[in-house]
UniProtKB/TrEMBL annotation:
Top-level taxon of the source organism: Bacteria
Start and end residues of each Histidine kinase/HSP90-like ATPase domain: 30-137
Name the record gives this protein: Histidine kinase/HSP90-like ATPase domain-containing protein
Organism of this sequence: Streptomyces fulvorobeus
Signal sequence, renumbered to the chain: none
InterPro entries, per database record: Anti-sigma-factor_SerPK, HATPase_C_sf, HATPase_dom
Pfam families, alphabetized: HATPase_c_2
Keywords, alphabetical: Kinase, Serine/threonine-protein kinase, Transferase
Length: 155
């Protein structure tokens, strides 16, 4: 007889509404540390376009850390995706199935604080595995604001 506490758990996630293409942005990232500054610039431009300049600093920091980790520890193409919905979702995908681990860096360590910073600044974060690797995602709450112009409420 199996131990109920050790049974696998499945989580089904679904959307009740469709996202407009204008609420998503994605791009490929070169597997080179110099590409991180371009990611920050791209994110800053997209958030300004969406009217989310207040979220820019934290979002740039989060994506800088996630992209840097992907460059250092993962294989294959790296892709960044932003989704503007009820929250701002940031995703970094790569072709490695190795899970990231949150760790406590020693005060003398020069690195090792990336995921700690992500965990401090994102409301939620996690890993989703795909057929060809993984996606590290973060979620940041957005201040209550009117819906984008393409969304109509009520009838």
């Amino acid at each position: 007889m199996s131990d109920p506490a050790r049974d696998d758990i499945a989580l089904l996630i679904g959307r009740t509404h469709r996202l407009d293409a204008a609420d998503m942005a994605d791009w490929d990232v070169r597997s080179d540390p110099s590409a991180v500054s371009a990611v920050r610039a791209d994110v800053s431009r997209k958030l300004a376009e969406w009217g989310l300049t207040e979220e820019s600093f934290i979002t740039e920091l989060i994506l800088s850390e996630l992209v840097t980790n992907a460059i250092r520890h993962a294989a294959g193409p790296i892709r960044v995706r932003l989704i503007r919905d009820r929250a701002l979702i940031c995703e970094v995908s790569d072709h490695s199935s190795t899970a990231p681990h949150l760790r406590q860096a020693a005060t003398t360590d020069e690195g090792g604080r990336g995921l700690f910073l992500v965990a401090q600044f994102a409301d939620r974060w996690g890993t989703r595995y795909t057929d060809d690797g993984k996606v590290i995602w973060t979620e940041q709450a957005l201040a209550a604001s009117p819906p984008p112009p393409h969304v109509r409420r009520g009838a």
